[in-house]
Each structure stands twice: as C-alpha cells, then as structure tokens.
Amino acid sequence: MRQSILMGMGLAAAVVLAGCQKAGEAEVDRALEAVNAIDGADLSDVMLTAADPNEAVAYFSRTLSENPDRIDIQRGLATSLVRAKRYDESVTAWKRVVKHPDSRLDDQVDLADALIRTGDWEQADKTLDAIPPTHETFKRYRLEAVVADSAKEWKKADSFYETAIGLTTRPAGVLNNWGYSKLTRGDFSDAERLFGQAIREDTGLFTAKNNLVLARAAQRNYSLPVVPMEQTERAQLLHTLALSAIKQGDVEIGKALLREAIDTHPQHFETAVRSLRALEAS
C-alpha cells in the first residue's frame, strides 16, 4: 500500500516536473522571440539611418523574403531604395506598402515623394489629391507645394509653402525652396527675403546663401550679404556673384569679383582662375 502511494506520488511529481519543464521552455521561447524582435527593430533602425543605403536595401530585401507580410520591413525597403537613389524601384516598393491592409496615409505621402523623384508629376499630384484634407502633415504640404510649383500654380504653391512652414520647427529647407520658386518667377526681392529667413533658421545652409547671392545679383546688387560665412564659403559666393555679373553683361565687375574670390580662397581656386583666364583671353 505504502509502495503504491509512493509510486503515485513519484508519477505525480514527474508529471508536474514535465509540465514545469514544458512551461519553462515555452517561456524561454517567448522571451527569445521578444529579444529577437527587439534586436530586429534596432537593426532596422540602424539600417535606415547609419548604414550604407545599398546595404540597407540588401538587408530589407533579404528580411522581406523571409517575412513577406511585414509592413515595417516593406517600408524599410522602400525607404532604403529612396536613400540609395533607386527611385523607380522605390515607387514599386511604396505601391506595395500602400496596398497593405495596415497601410497608413503617410505611406501615400511617401509614394508621392518617390513619384516626384522619378519626375512623374501627374501621378504624384493624383496620389496627393487622394489623401483626405484632414491629413495635415509637414511632408504632405511640402510636396503639395513642390507639385504646384511644377505646374506653375503660384498661388497654390505659396499657400502650401506657408502651411508647411507652420507645421515644422525646422523650416529652413522649405523657406529655401520657396525662395527658389520666387527666384524662378522673377520675384527677386521676395526671394531675397525668403533666403534670408532660411539662413537665420539654419546658418549652415550654404544652398540658401548661394541662392541669396543669386537673388541680389539679379537686381544688380553685387555686394555680399551680411550673413555668417567661412572663408571658403566667402570665396565661393564671390565666384557666384562674378558669374552672375558676367551673365548680365557687367564683365569688368565680374572680373574684379573673380580676382577677389581667388585672393579670398584659402587654397588654389582653380574654377575661378579658369573663369578669369577665359575672360582675359577673350
């Protein structure tokens, strides 16, 4: 009797132990899955920011082949293709994301961005038009402004640029784009104002400084603006002023600016030297 009881207790203990072991294994498996998910998310973030764009494309392509339904991996691939400047492929990738049942409105905005990069302005416009007006984001309105610019719909472009600026804490790039739009329209004074605002927002934005010089030169103002600039930047801006002056027929002023650019540059300014030699030879 006692032996039977002991055997029963032993069997019960074995069953409990086996049950604990299985439960323990299941918990370990779940823990490992969680860790792998975290590691994968961290690696995806690295690939989207720090990695070489083509390496990121390879990573997301490989991961997507193993997890074809994961929209985060689809987005990662599409984003990486844009970073790698493989724009035609990125359009295909973003279209796949947009068709996913878990797609968001931001994905349609990113599709429009990819379409713009391929020069498909018509499809980009249609994609943006399909997004509800209640979806008000900085990127959406920045793209709306660019599309309106391409169609020379200036009032719409101005409205979209203004809206986009109000939706970001870093408006320098948009101000620069808006200024360039004004520059192409021949509204030089307004362009100059917008470039100045862009530089105040980001003193390191050399493109805005160069565009500011172009706007001033278009008004035959060949003096450098009072903005923060390094010595090399100063030389480059003088070179821009010189070429603008020459293009407008103010050749002697252009020559003087080229000489100043050469003297200002901390190293040999080959481009300016060639320009000056060509002028003097002619």
From TrEMBL:
One matching Pfam family, short form?
TPR_16
Origin superkingdom = Bacteria
Spell out the Gene3D superfamilies in the cross-references.
Tetratricopeptide repeat domain
PROSITE patterns found in the cross-reference section: PROKAR_LIPOPROTEIN
Family matches, as InterPro entries: TPR-like_helical_dom_sf, TPR_rpt
Recite the UniProt keywords alphabetically: Signal
Record's signal peptide: 1-18
What name appears for this protein in its UniProt entry? Type IV pilus biogenesis/stability protein PilW
